[in-house]
């Protein structure tokens, strides 16, 4: 019996070792697959443009230079577009989270008479879209086209965000609200003193959703404000760079190679500019995400489970 127990323990140890080894290998492969495109783009952005045309760039620049970034930031339109992107991300996130939290708090209260009807009306908007033309006409009649607020007001309340926050608030102990009511606290006091502070995890999660959406958005700029350079965003400028580089002929690459062989080093190509701008628009989100990551899973898990 002792021999069988030792054999079973040894077999379990071998099985665990095999499982751990396979798991580590698969995770390493996944990391490589996910990181390589970004590292390759970073290497291209830091590599001399005419040398990049020759190909063969991996994850380490072959001829290091920062001229690609200098070229990007020398463009005054890029700097102004970056400012607009930051403004729409900050303002859009702050107003979007606050508006979604207000609506979520209202429909999470059991004594709200129109609670079910309001929830149903919001959910229906997720399945029925009026289309681009009616939406455009509505925004035009509201006077939003050609203004900065076209980036903020139409996306002020996201139904998915409201549902996530509402599910979280429904799990807040009702005794806290009942105690506050007995002390004479009104709805605003309960919202600002109880509901919001206890909903920090889900608020951080929704903030990340909205911030990423606002930062990456370019289609609304293309539809409503493409003729107004003062309201262009960084992502829209990146889209224009990607579109223009897609129509570059192979003659441009040959000219870049000839320029490099003639000793003209400080030049750019569509590929190098595209890589530099991709890194520029990605860095802010990469820097912000680690600070909100600890709230991310917790906010979705607790907010998605109804107690």
UniProtKB/TrEMBL annotation:
It is found in: Cell membrane. It is a multi-pass membrane protein. Keywords: Cell membrane, Membrane, Transmembrane, Transmembrane helix, Transport. PROSITE patterns: ABC_TM1. The chain crosses the membrane at residues 21-39, 78-107, 119-137, 149-169, 190-212, 273-292. Residues 78-292 form the ABC transmembrane type-1 domain. Belongs to the binding-protein-dependent transport system permease family. This is Carbohydrate ABC transporter permease.
